[in-house]
Each structure stands twice: as structure tokens, then as C-alpha cells.
């Protein structure tokens, strides 16, 4: 194991944090109907919590309407209940064949709450990136202590890890900023 390996292992972990942020931001609604809005919904399917996407097809036929077509018609009520319980501010209704989920326009207060939520999610992911940096730095210090790398190599590798961290923190900030702008624009 050398300093290049440590940096090589840190990059995919930081990529993972940014990808997870993208997924989490996609589930925060912006006033427009998006299929990803219901990604976080889990339905109690015969006693097993099951993601909605694994038991129904979700479509956005209109900009302010989602439809959920379950593969098992007996689960209509459970799906409707799960969407209500997901705390997304949505009020689904079912017509016996599918669940219609109107996506109401966001109020100014709700937009601010969601922007705060975006900020909190982004901060969690910045922390995740910093934790990867800390792990990489610890491993580099351990390699130096075990005399597997020189002090110069350690110093250069620490600087490289910091550059990598800064670039990923910038990506997190850009994603959060664009989502906030999307939320706050009417």
C-alpha cells in the first residue's frame, strides 16, 4: 500500500457521497411533478416494508399530477396510506384502479422549509466527504509512521487529498445551490 492507493480509494468514496446527494435532492419536491418524488416512499406489503417503485409503476402525465399503478390491485389502499405517511405534503386519492397524486404548488413558507432541508442534506454530505478525507489522512500518517512512505511523499499526498476534498465539496455546494434556486424560483 502506498500514497497513490490511498488517494485512489478516497476518490470513489467521495463520488459515492456526491451520487447519494443527487439521489436525495431528487426526492425533494420543487412544485413540479417528478417520478423521483416518490422514491423515498415505502409501502407495508404484507408486513414487509417495500419501496413503492418495486410494487407499482409511477408516471407523471401532467406537470402537477402523478399516477401510481400498482401491479397488485389489492394494495391500492396501502399505497395511498404510505404516500400520505411519507410527509411529502401530498394528498393522494384512488379511483379503484390507480392512485392519483396531485402535486400542489408550493407556498412560500414550504419553499423556505424545503430550502433549509436541502441545506441540511448538503451539509451531511459535506461531512461525509470530510470523513473520507480524514480516513485517507489517517492512513497516510500511518504509512509514514510505519516508514512505508517518506515525509515528502506524505506531505504531497496530504495536499492531493485536500485538493480532492475541495473539488468534491464544490460539487456538493453547486448541486445544493442549483436545487435551492430551483425551489425558490416561482
Task: Describe what this molecule looks like in 3D.
There is one protein chain. By secondary structure, the chain is α+β, with helices and mostly antiparallel strands. It folds into two domains: 3-26 and 107-184, Ribosome-recycling factor (Topoisomerase I, Chain A, domain 4, Orthogonal Bundle), CATH 1.10.132.20; 35-102, Gyrase A, domain 2 (2-Layer Sandwich), CATH 3.30.1360.40. 57% of the residues lie in helices and 15% in strands. It has four helices and six strands; from the N terminus they run αββββαββαα. It has helices spanning 3-26, 76-85, 108-145, 151-184; strands spanning 42-45, 48-51, 56-62, 65-70, 93-94, 99-102. The strands form two sheets. The chain has a four-stranded antiparallel sheet, with helices on one face. It has a two-stranded antiparallel sheet with strand order 1-2. Strand 5 and strand 6 (99-102) form a beta hairpin. The radius of gyration is 22 Å and the shape is elongated.
Amino acid at each position: 500500500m502506498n500514497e497513490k492507493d490511498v488517494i485512489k480509494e478516497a476518490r470513489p468514496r467521495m463520488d459515492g457521497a456526491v451520487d447519494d446527494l443527487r439521489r436525495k435532492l431528487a426526492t425533494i419536491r420543487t412544485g413540479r411533478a417528478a417520478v423521483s418524488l416518490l422514491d423515498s416512499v415505502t409501502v407495508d406489503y404484507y408486513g414487509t416494508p417495500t419501496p413503492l417503485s418495486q410494487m407499482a409503476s409511477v408516471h407523471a402525465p401532467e406537470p402537477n399530477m402523478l399516477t401510481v399503478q400498482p401491479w397488485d390491485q389489492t394494495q391500492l389502499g396501502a399505497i395511498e396510506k404510505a404516500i400520505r405517511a411519507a410527509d411529502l405534503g401530498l394528498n393522494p386519492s384512488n379511483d379503484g384502479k390507480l392512485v392519483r397524486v396531485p402535486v400542489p404548488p408550493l407556498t412560500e413558507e414550504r419553499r423556505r422549509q424545503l430550502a433549509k432541508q436541502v441545506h441540511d442534506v448538503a451539509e451531511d454530505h459535506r461531512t461525509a466527504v470530510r470523513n473520507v478525507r480524514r480516513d485517507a489522512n489517517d492512513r497516510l500518517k500511518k504509512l509514514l509512521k510505519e516508514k512505508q512512505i517518506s515525509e515528502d511523499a506524505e506531505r504531497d499526498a496530504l495536499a492531493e487529498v485536500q485538493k480532492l476534498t475541495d473539488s468534491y465539496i464544490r460539487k456538493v455546494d453547486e448541486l445544493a445551490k442549483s436545487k435551492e434556486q430551483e425551489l425558490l424560483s416561482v
